[in-house]
Amino acid sequence: MSSGPLSLYIHIPWCSVRCGYCDFNTYVTDTSNSANTAPYIEAVRKEIALASATLKGGWVKTVYFGGGTPTLMSAVDMGRILSTVRRSFDLDDSAEITTEANPETLSPEYLEDVRGVGVNRLSLGMQSAVPHVLATLDRVHTPGRALESVAWARKADFDQVSLDLIYGTPGESMEDWEATLVSALAAKPDHVSAYSLIVEDGTPLARRMAAGLLPYPDDDSLADKYVLAEALLSNGGLTWYEVSNWSKPNRECKHNMNYWRSGDWWGIGAGAHSHLDGTRWWNYRRPATYISKLNEGKSPSQGSETLTADERHEEKLMLKIRLGEGLSVADLTDAEYARAEDYLGSGHLVLTGSRLVCTVAGRLIADKIVRDILMASPRMARREKPKDLPPIPPPPPGEPVVAELTPESTIRISEVQWAHG
Ligand SMILES: C[S@@+](CC[C@H](N)C(=O)[O-])C[C@H]1O[C@@H](n2cnc3c(N)ncnc32)[C@H](O)[C@@H]1O
Ligand code: SF4
Q: pTM for this one?
C-alpha cells in the first residue's frame, strides 16, 4: 500500500516514425484514425480505475504522460484521461502534470488546448540544434521548431518547459554540441535534460555502427561534452540536481525526483513499470495484449518482484549517488563509508554536511563509484564473482538472502486483492 503521495506515469506507445536510436516500447501508428487509438485510451482509463480501487484512492502529486509520443493524442483524449485520474484520486491544482512532446506535433492551438485540460509542464524532445545531427538521429523536426515550441508554450501559460538534448551522436563535433547548448539556453527553459547517446542493442543505429557505417561514441569526447554541458548550463542559471538534469531553482522535475528518491508510482499503459513500497511490477508490452487483459477484467501486469532489504539498499545508493542532494552518510555501513573515503581522497566525492555528493569528475563515473562502495555486499560479491571460484556458501542464519524472483510471482501488498499476471 502506498504510504505517501503517489506518482502516475501514463505510457502512450505511438510515434509517427521510429527513430533509429530508440528502443522504447512504441509503434508507428496512424493516430489520425481514432479506431487505432480509442481502445488503448479506454484501457488506460480502466487501469487508472483499477489502481484507484486497489489503493482505495489517495493523493496523486504528479502525472507524467510519456512515450512514444503523447502529443500525438488529442487534447480531448488527454483531458479524458486526466478526468479519470481526478475522479479516481485526489489531484489538486498544485500537482505537476507533464507531457513529453515531439516538436513536430505541436502548434500554438494544440498547446493552448493541452494547457486547458490541466497539463502544466512540457518536456520537449529537442535533441540537437544541428541539422546533420538531427538527420543522423532520424529526427524529423527542423532545429528551429523546438525553440518556436518553447515560445508557444510560454504563451499558452505552461508553468514549466524542459528541453531534452542528446550528445555523442556520430559526427557531432564539440562545436555542434556547444551550438546546441547555446541554442537551448537562448530559449530560456526552466529545465534541461542532457543524455549521452545510448547505443541500444537491436536498433538500426547499433546495426549501422556494427557494419562500420557510423563510428561508436568515444568515451573521452563524451566526458568532454558532459563537462561543457555543466559549464554552459550552470553559467546560464541552471543547476544540476541529477547527473543528466539541470534546472532553475525549484524547477526540478518532481515526478522524476520521486523515482530517484525510491518513492511510489503506478505505471499505467503497455509495458509500464510500477513501484509500491519495495514491490515492483510491469505490464505486458504489446498494446493489444494490454488492452485485451483489461477488457477481460484482468490485471495487465505480466510479472512482479519484491526487493530484499539488500536490494533496496543497493538501489537507494545507486539512485542517490546521482543526485545533487547526494547520499546521506547515515545510509552507509561503516565498511561502505570506508570505501567511499577513497573517492573523497581522489576528489570524485565531497562531504557536504553529512552527505556525500559527486563532483563533476565523480558524476562522470557515478555508477562505478557506487559499485565500488557496495562491493562487499553479498549480492554485489555474487555479481562480481569470477567463474572459477567455488560457489559462495549460504549466508549465516539471520542474514538476508537474495530472493529467487520469478516473473509470475504475485506481488505482496496486503491491500492488493488481485494477482498480477
Ligand atoms: C521516452 S523519449 C520520448 C520523447 C519523445 N518521443 C521524443 O523523442 O522527443 C524521452 C527522451 O529520451 C531520450 N532518449 C531516447 N532514446 C535515447 C537513447 N538511445 N540515448 C539517449 N537518450 C535517449 C531523448 O532525449 C528523448 O527526448
Ligand atoms: S525517440 Fe521519441 S519519437 Fe523517436 S521513436 Fe523514440 S519515442 Fe518515438
A: 0.89
CATH of 310-384, picked from 1.10.10, 1.20.58, 1.10.287, 1.25.10, is 1.10.10
Our answer on whether the CB atom of 198 is closer than 6 Å to any ligand 1 atom is: yes
Q: Which of these CATH numbers, 1.20.140.10, 3.20.20.70, 3.40.190.10, 1.20.1070.10, describes 6-260?
A: 3.20.20.70
User: Which atom of ligand 2 has the smallest separation from the CA of 102?
Assistant: 3
| Ligand 1 touching residue 140 (CB < 6 A) | no
Is any ligand 2 atom within 6 A of the Cβ of residue 377? no
Question: Is 128 a pocket residue for ligand 2 (Cβ < 6 Å)?
Answer: no
Assign 118 a pLDDT band (cuts: 50, 70, 90). very high
Q: Which three cell numbers stand for residue 292?
A: 485485451
Ligand 2: which residue has its CA nearest to atom 4?
19
pLDDT digits (tens, 9 = 90+) for 232-286: 999 999 999 999 999 999 999 999 999 999 999 999 999 999 999 999 999 999 9
- Which grid coordinates belong to 232? 554552459
Of 196, 400, 217, residue with least CA distance to 310? 400
Q: Is 197 in the pocket of ligand 1 (CB under 6 A)?
A: yes
Instruction: Find the 376 Cα to ligand 2 centroid distance in Å.
Output: 39
> Using a 6 Å cutoff on CB, does residue 195 contact ligand 2?
no
- Would the pLDDT of 3 be above 70? no
